[in-house]
Amino acid sequence: MPDLPALDVLLPADASARLLAPRSDEAELIALFADGPMTGVHVRANMVSTVDGAATGANRLSGSINGPADFRVFRVLRALADVVLVGAGTVRAERYTPLEVPAELRAARAALGRPDALELAVVTASGELPDSLLDTDRPPLVLTTASAPSLDALRARLGDDRVVVADGGTPGAVDPRTVITALADRGLVHVLAEGGPTLLAQLVDADLVDELCLTWSPQLVGGPAGRVTDLPTWFAPARALTLTHLLHADGVLLGRWQVARLGA
């Protein structure tokens, strides 16, 4: 584990703690991110961006633009989730494996009523996922389409309970509303969406995202990298955000925003 920095609380100005020193149990940071409207089904997104708006570095991976400050928040957000929701492209690019909550964060997780195991749920229209992820003792939940070429093979490999058909109005596409409903039906109501940008944009467009945690990395990378949301059309309307808190360490800014839901 890298050396973890203290986090300055820049906003809100009336925060009781102005500096969050790293602790093994991260009690203060967990309390900060557990605070707020998180009843019922709650979808929180966590993304990272450079100052010039790139969601990855030149290697096309988010790992090249994050660091120790982001890692502190990343671990806490996972500890607060029932399930991590990711698109298949991100799973392949970032080489996801079955998820584990660090031992030192499990007591706080249990105190908040979260299940012992942190689930991984993968959205894939094709049903194609790496063998290294499927051939484990804790394979992910797979949310796919009825037309996926690998559907029958996935069911035979993982079992019917781990494969969910989540079709929607667009033929051959996974419907984000069906995805969130399917997770909630399994008791997975605290959803942490870790991207990629296409999945996040689809969730926002479907009015499903309650909260965005966004880290700004102090880098300029140029190039053709996409933003943290990737959709060919504009959000209509644009989604208003309300800043809950803003943290800082070594030039890295970490914001937490509430997303205005159109149906609220």
Task: Give a structural overview.
The chain has helices at 27-34, 68-79, 88-94, 106-111, 131-134, 151-158, 176-185, 197-205; strands spanning 7-11, 19-20, 42-50, 83-87, 119-123, 141-144, 163-165, 190-193, 211-217, 241-249, 252-259. It has 264 residues and is α/β, with parallel strands linked by helices. A hairpin with a 7-residue loop joins β1 (7-11) and β2 (19-20). The longest helix is centred in the N-terminal third of the chain and has 12 residues, at 68-79. The model has no long low-confidence stretch (mean pLDDT 94). Pathway: Cofactor biosynthesis; riboflavin biosynthesis. It comes from Cellulomonas humilata. InterPro entries: DHFR-like_dom_sf, RibDG_C, Riboflavin_Biosynth_HTPR. It holds the Pfam family RibD_C.
What structural keywords apply?
8 helices; 11-stranded mixed beta sheet; alpha/beta; DHFR-like_dom_sf; 24% helix; 264 residues; globular; Riboflavin_Biosynth_HTPR
Gist?
This protein has 264 residues and is α/β, with parallel strands linked by helices.
Blueprint of the fold:
Layout: E1 7-11, E2 19-20, H1 27-34, E3 42-50, H2 68-79, E4 83-87, H3 88-94, H4 106-111, E5 119-123, H5 131-134, E6 141-144, H6 151-158, E7 163-165, H7 176-185, E8 190-193, H8 197-205, E9 211-217, E10 241-249, E11 252-259
